[in-house]
Amino acid sequence: MNKKMTISSIKKAKGITPLVMITAYDALFASLFEDSCDMLLVGDSLNMSFAGKSDTISATMEQMIYHTNAVCAGAQNSFVICDMPFGTYTNKEDALKNSIKVFQETKADCVKIEGGADKADIVKHLTSNAIAVCGHIGLLPQSVRSEGGYKVKGKTDKEILSLIADARAIEEAGAFCIVIEGVKAGVAEEVAKSVDIPVIGIGAGVDVDGQVLVFSDMLGLFEAFTPKFVKKYMDGASLVRKSVEEYAAQVRTKEFPQEIHTY
Ligand code: KIV
């Protein structure tokens, strides 16, 4: 069993070992990921791949707490991040009240909030009240409706400067690491170099301090769409469909159960 990562070992990994983060929404998959990954993210992406919604906007605190508890139970030796859902950290007071709820009702090690310099005062308020924070900059899935779609960032000089300013502001506010999503690779590299905390990429190229993928994407289970940055490490949907088809056929032909499955 690997030693559980801590805020300090995660920070120390920068520039030494690429960090491995993966999403997890339940105890079963969390237990399967625990030995290979450094951090498990209970992402609000569960609202899409688990709850079947078209975006993350309607995820709730209750959902995040339920799934975070399941992940913590299944992977007791993992560093677990709970994503704060849309609308739960619009001001300092709500952010702290809702983060305290996460800390009191689950064993999550930190919360993750989307936003850059505009959220620095909120991050500062959380970190100065003993809530560890992972930032999330670049393409922000919770802004999908206000931005009119998922837009890759870092395409103009203005965006590049603002990404660097975002990362620095979040670091200055006390975050211990930052997820950077949907950013041109060279720009993400520059952002990672501009701060002393790890910058974990998703759709941000290889020259950052680690990677995160949504597990249902990388296992090929989520079929609705596959972003360019996803590598499918298995064709999970076909495997599941084929196995269940075989089970159904065997039930119908009475090939299952056999004697070995019978008391
Ligand atoms: O919700 C999520 O899974 C995330 C990842 C895309 C980083 O925030």
Question: Into which percentage range does the β-strand content fall?
Answer: 5-15%
User: Ends: how far apart?
Assistant: 36 Å
Strand order of the largest sheet: 1-2-3-4-5-6-7-8
What small-molecule ligands were found?
3-methyl-2-oxobutanoic acid
Q: Judging from the principal axes of the Cα atoms, what is the shape?
A: globular
The radius of gyration computed from the alpha-carbon positions, rounded to a whole number of angstroms, is 20 Å
Outline the biggest β-sheet. Answer: 8 strands, parallel, barrel
The H-and-E topology, N to C, reads as HEHEHHEHEHEHHEHEEHH
* pLDDT < 50 runs, ≥5 residues: none
> Mean pLDDT, nearest integer?
97
Tally the helices.
11
Helix content: 25-40%
Structural class given helices, strands, pairing? alpha/beta
How many strand elements? 8
Q: Summary?
A:
It is built from 11 helices and 8 strands.
Characterise this structure.
- This protein is an alpha/beta fold and about 260 residues long.
- Helix content is about 40%, strand content about 15%.
- It is built from 11 helices and 8 strands.
- It has an 8-stranded parallel barrel, surrounded by 5 helices.
- Helix 2 crosses helix 4 and helix 5 (about 90-105) crosses helix 6.
- 3-methyl-2-oxobutanoic acid binds near residues 43, 45 and 83.
- 3-methyl-2-oxobutanoic acid (KIV) binds near residues 44, 179 and 202.
What descriptive keywords fit this protein?
263 residues, alpha/beta, eight-stranded parallel barrel, 11 helices, globular, binds 3-methyl-2-oxobutanoic acid
